[in-house]
Write a structure and sequence with these properties.
8-stranded mixed beta sheet; 4 helices; mainly beta; Fumarylacetoacetate hydrolase, domain 2; 4-stranded antiparallel beta sheet
Length: 211
C-alpha cells in the first residue's frame, strides 16, 4: 500500500520525494563538505514516508527542511519535513564515491507534516525547528543557494514530477543526532505568519528490518 501525506484534509499518494542536498552554505561548512558546482539531487522512495519520528541509532541525525508539494508541475503546497540520515553510513559511502540510498532512503526516513496550499510568495518562506523547546535550526528563502523555482526547473530537466510528489529543499546548519523521548516541533512561516506546525516525540521503532 502506498504511503500518503495529508493535503487539504485529504490523504494523497506520493510517488517519490526529491531531495536537494547542500543548499545552505553554513550547513555545508559545518559538515566539512565542498560547495557543489551544480545542484545536488537524490531521491527518497514512497516507503520512506512517515508521520512518526523514530530513533534508529546513535549515528542517525535529523535535518529539518521546508518541503513543497507539486501539482501540475508547479509548487502548490508547503509543509515541514525531517530528512533522517545515517551519518556514519553516508560518510563511508561518500569516501567511496557510492550512492547514498542506504544512508538516506531507508524506511521512515522522511518524516513529514501535513501540507497546506501555498498562496503566499515563495520568497517569504522560512522555517524553524525546536527540540525540547530549544531552537536548533532556522532558515529563510534568502539563505537558499538554489531557490524553489530553480529546483523545480532543474529537476524537470531529467525527471518527471507526478502530482503530489514532494521536494525537500535542503537543510540549514544545526543538524545533530537525537534520542528517544526528544520533543520536536517544526514550523513553516510566510514572513511572521505561521503556515504549518507539527510536533513529534521520538519513538522506538519495530526492529523488523536491519538498518
Amino acid at each position: 500500500m502506498m504511503k500518503t501525506v495529508q493535503y487539504e484534509e485529504q490523504n494523497v499518494e506520493v510517488s517519490k520525494i526529491v531531495c536537494i542536498g547542500r543548499n545552505y552554505v553554513e550547513h555545508i561548512e559545518e559538515l566539512g563538505n565542498e560547495i557543489p558546482s551544480s545542484m545536488v539531487v537524490f531521491n527518497k522512495p514512497n516507503s520512506s514516508i512517515s508521520d512518526t519520528l523514530y530513533y534508529f541509532s546513535e549515528h542517525c541525525r535529523f535535518e529539518g527542511e521546508i518541503c513543497f508539494l507539486i501539482r501540475n508541475n508547479k509548487i502548490t503546497g508547503v509543509g515541514f519535513g525531517l530528512d533522517l540520515t545515517y551519518a556514519d553510513i553516508q560518510d563511508t559511502l561518500k569516501k567511496k564515491g557510492l550512492p547514498w540510498e542506504r544512508a538516506k532512503a531507508f524506511d521512515n526516513s522522511a518524516v513529514l507534516s501535513t501540507f497546506v496550499p501555498l498562496h503566499d510568495d515563495v520568497s517569504t518562506l522560512g522555517m524553524k525547528l525546536y527540540i525540547n523547546d530549544t531552537l536548533v535550526q532556522f532558515a529563510t528563502y534568502d539563505l537558499m543557494m538554489y531557490k524553489p523555482d530553480t529546483m523545480l526547473l532543474e529537476i524537470q530537466r531529467f525527471m518527471t514530477l507526478e502530482d503530489n510528489d514532494i521536494i525537500m529543499s535542503g537543510t540549514p546548519k544545526g543538524v545533530a543526532t537525537y534520542r528517544v523521548g526528544d520533543r520536536f516541533k517544526g514550523q513553516v512561516f510566510s514572513g511572521e505568519k505561521l503556515l504549518v506546525e507539527n510536533e513529534w516525540v521520538v519513538q522506538v521503532p519495530n526492529r523488523d528490518k536491519v538498518y
